[in-house]
Amino acid sequence: MTSSELRERFAASIMPNYGVPPVALTLGRGCEVYDADGRQYLDLIAGIAVSSLGHGHPALVKAVAHQAATLAHTSNLFVHEREVQLAERLVGLLGGDAKVFFANSGTEANEAALKLVKRAAGSGRHYFVAADKGFHGRSAGSLALTGKESIREPFGPFGMDVRFVPHGDLEALTEAVDENCVAVFVEPTQGEAGVVPAPEGYLAGVRALCDETGAAFVLDEIQSGIGRTGQWFAHQEEGVRPDVLTLAKGLGGGLPIGACVGFGRYADAFHKGDHGSTFGGNPVACAAALAVIDTIESEGLLAHTSVMGDLLAEQIEGVKHPLLAGQRGSGLWRALELTGPHAAHVQEQAAVRGFLVNAVAPDAIRIAPPLVITPEQIGVFIEALPTVLDAAEAAATKEHQS
Ligand SMILES: Cc1ncc(COP(=O)(O)O)c(C=O)c1O
Q1: What is the pLDDT of residues 159-216, one digit of tens each?
Q2: Which domains does the chain show, CATH number per domain?
Q3: pTM of this structure
Q4: Residues whose beta carbon lies within 6 Å of some atom of ligand 1
Q5: Closest listed residue to residue 172, CA positions, set 226, 215, 131, 224
């Protein structure tokens, strides 16, 4: 089966919401993946910040295979050890005084957070505050909180009063939040907006405002959590703790899992029967997440991520090209800032030369490789980057002329 045949079958059988992705993948090994025609790529996007251990990591393979062969599914009618172990591990990494609800994806983790804060707020509070251009998922509640108008508006109204403020603007947030606010939903760095960090001190400001007004502080670390920034969690950098934390993506290293963590009084805010999921906390997904956490620890991947992230940033800064304005982000979660809306061409030309990157915004390329990427692999990409940018520039010029 060739890539083009597979893409044709995709178009004929899969709904058109994703369009037809340009590359058809069949195999992954470490940071390398192969398409259906046998072409090799350096994976610099890791399934959108998911495959943190790379592809086919023996620890993940062993944990998943063993669990699938032992007990693949229980539902929430039964207790099983992997789920309890994983919750304990997460609570340990977060410093205690917390409990976890497991879901299957990011959007479901945020739906759980939404219900949790509503339950904890009681009846007086009636509105939410979230950030312009923010992204919290595609299901109705998460979408209502999503600041990207183009993807939210066609599906509203949602029956929720959500007020949007500019990302990272503490003054605007202070204006918007009072004692009638249920919760503030924040990303530490906006991933889908183009890896846009909040200014230093912003999370501490959100914490103080929520303490003052009694609104819940919900931190969406679905993209930033589990090592991506070189810390277990991005909020640990600022030494603040939210009331509710949501996780997914890198947690399962490629297996679908999400988590909603409640701290303090939010740990026990749900009543029995308030929420549930047939697959949430599935043993195979939990075994994968345990393997991810163990491997990040045993292979020193937090420190490695910081070092590789700094190296990547430094080397990008060293590339001088008219299309490249600079870079932003932290750890192995970066955006190439382009001087114009050339991201689609850069993504395409990178793939032609064997690099998978993501045109996350018209003028930004997201780079979020597996956390196991090596200096040599970063070097290969940086060496090719000027050629990729030249080709993107030529393609843009050609498009403009035609
Ligand atoms: C910050 C953030 N929240 C929520 C989500 C939704 O996650 P999922 O696609 O797993 O539903 C995403 C996905 O990109 C995300 O980046």
Answers
A1: 999 999 999 999 999 999 999 999 999 999 999 999 999 999 999 999 999 999 999 9
A2: 3-56+300-401 (3.90.1150.10), 59-298 (3.40.640.10)
A3: 0.98
A4: 48, 105-107, 110, 135-137, 187, 191-192, 220, 222-223, 248
A5: 131
